[in-house]
Design goal:
The chain is of the alpha/beta class. 39% of the residues lie in helices and 16% in strands. The chain has one domain: Rossmann fold (3-Layer(aba) Sandwich). The mean pLDDT is 84.
Length: 113
């Protein structure tokens, strides 16, 4: 059973105002559970996985193309170069449309790559 976090409504509100929201915190603090629950309709990619991380590093455009409506990108700090590929389209698209990609980003600042 997943316990709804008090911050969930604020997170969803912010995701409606911005194309990218970032959730940071210490390891094992519930970031993944929170975002996978709040954004259940979005795909999920964990960049802690060596294969996913290598794919993100070697072909970031193709990785992101897999997620036309956005994705929950976990352990984003493992591939810092990916942030530029996420930021550019978000800055240039009319992201308030319901078809614009959404990308909740999760990371642990205490685990720098």
């Amino acid at each position: 059973m997943v316990i709804e976090r008090e911050i969930t409504p604020q997170l969803l509100e912010l995701s409606g105002q911005y194309p990218i929201v970032t959730v940071t915190g210490p390891r094992q603090s519930g970031k993944t559970t929170l975002c996978r629950s709040a954004f259940a309709r979005l795909a999920y990619a964990n960049l802690e996985d060596p294969d996913a991380r290598e794919f993100a590093e070697s072909d970031p455009r193709r990785l992101l193309a897999q997620f036309p409506v956005g994705a929950v990108l976990d352990e984003i700090q493992r591939v810092p170069s990916l942030l530029s590929y996420i930021q550019l389209p978000a800055a240039s698209q009319p992201w308030k449309s319901s078809r614009a990609p959404r990308s909740p980003l999760l990371g642990s600042p205490d685990c720098a790559a």
